[in-house]
Write a structure and sequence with these properties.
The protein is an alpha+beta fold. It has a single domain (39-337), classed as HIT family, subunit A, CATH 3.30.428. 25% of the residues lie in helices and 21% in strands. The protein has helices at residues 120-138, 175-191, 195-206, 247-268, 314-317, 326-337, and strands spanning 7-11, 16-20, 69-72, 88-89, 94-95, 100-106, 145-152, 164-170, 210-213, 217-220, 231-235, 274-279, 294-298, 301-304, 307-308, 321-322. A 9-stranded antiparallel β-sheet has the order 3-6-8-7-12-13-11-10-9, sandwiched between helices. It has a 3-stranded mixed β-sheet with strand order 1-2-16, with no helix packed on it. A hairpin with a 2-residue loop joins strand 14 (301-304) and strand 15. Helix 1 (120-138) crosses helix 4 and helix 4 (247-268) packs across helix 6.
Length: 340
């Protein structure tokens, strides 16, 4: 479908468009090529503030942890204290203070590991920590959204290679989940089912964009994907947030997280960089039956381990654009599953 024709695809979650130009993928590449540095790290780095026993920038000592370690970010982007500054509110200038809590979650004490190299049991502890933090932070009266995310690789702005992610909990729902809130609520009011339940059912019928399947979760390249090898992990059962998962589903998410990232590493034979995060219901005390939580992966690599996709020109000034179709991307990812 539209494999050679320029076209636009609609994203019902964010109510936005992406321009797809499949014919452009046939053009010769004359862009940036870089050497890829070998990813060799010690199991414990005495200079890493996330490794056990080392002192962090604020003078605190990282404990001798054995699996997952969560702590409040020493350089938090938002703070829990109420600001004494007055808000700015005019016809053209509007600003107000934002409260929140930022945490760091170390996935393992091993400095040399990444998620695809960890075993399922260890990743399951990461999933459990996500659930515990979502519940604890979301219960605070001034917290209305908990954003769980991970930046992997220097190209994605990760300042420390130690396996870790972050959790930012804040007063207001950020823009991306807020868009998805609107899109899912519209759909639920009209159809009485979650948008992603119906979308997943259609994807499972078509089989064109499915990358991995298991009992509880499906990984696929979204029909409206922007990044070349963007994927989404969707639970088969509609759940507003991760704390609604059963024990089996928590393990299932850990297994899918591991399998999909292994697939990424196989693709270009490199520790694959990405930004990933969970979008789920706000923690404002409402039931949010319209929400169907999902985990998204936005990887920058395009043609090889050294060739990246950049958001420039038209994409910065108009709207996102991609050359490789989501169907072709899914096919390439499926081939990478057993390439090693």
């Amino acid at each position: 479908m539209l494999n050679d024709t320029p076209h636009r695809r609609w994203n019902p979650l964010t109510e936005s468009w992406v321009l797809v130009s499949p014919h452009r993928s046939k053009r010769p590449w004359q862009g940036q090529v870089e050497a890829v540095a070998p990813d060799q790290r010690p199991a414990h780095d005495p200079n890493c503030y996330l490794c056990s026993g080392n002192v962090r920038a604020n003078g605190e000592k990282t404990p001798d942890y054995k699996d997952v370690f969560v702590f409040t970010n020493d350089f938090a982007a938002i703070l829990p204290e109420k600001s004494k500054e007055k808000q700015i509110s005019t016809a053209l200038f509007y600003a107000k203070a934002e409260r929140g809590i930022c945490k760091v979650i170390c996935f393992s004490p091993r400095h040399d590991l990444t998620i695809p190299q960890m075993d399922t049991a260890a990743i399951r502890k990461v999933v459990d920590a996500w659930c515990a933090e979502y519940e604890e932070l979301g219960a605070k009266p001034f917290i209305n959204y908990v954003q769980i995310f991970e930046n992997k690789g220097a190209v994605m702005g990760c300042s420390n290679p130690h396996p870790h992610g972050q959790i930012w909990a804040q007063e207001h729902v950020p823009d991306e989940p807020a868009k998805k809130q609107i899109g899912q609520l519209k759909y639920f009011k009209k159809h009485g089912t979650t948008l992603l339940s119906d979308y997943l059912a259609e994807e499972l019928k078509q089989k064109e964009r499915i990358v991995l399947e298991q009992e509880h979760f499906v990984a696929l390249v979204p029909f409206w994907a922007i990044w070349p090898f963007e994927t989404m992990i969707i639970p088969r059962r509609a759940m507003a947030c991760i704390t609604q998962m059963t024990e089996e589903e928590r393990t299932g998410l850990a297994q899918m997280y591991q399998s999909l990232t292994q697939c990424y590493d196989n693709l270009f034979d490199v520790s694959f960089p990405y930004s990933a995060g969970i979008h789920q219901a706000p923690t404002d005390g409402k039931p949010h039956e319209e929400w169907h939580f999902h985990k998204v992966f936005y990887p920058p690599l395009l043609r090889s381990a050294s060739v990246k996709k950049f958001m420039v020109g038209y994409e910065m000034l108009a709207n996102p654009q991609r050359d490789i179709t989501p169907e072709k991307a899914a096919e390439i990812l499926r081939l990478a599953i057993h390439s090693k």
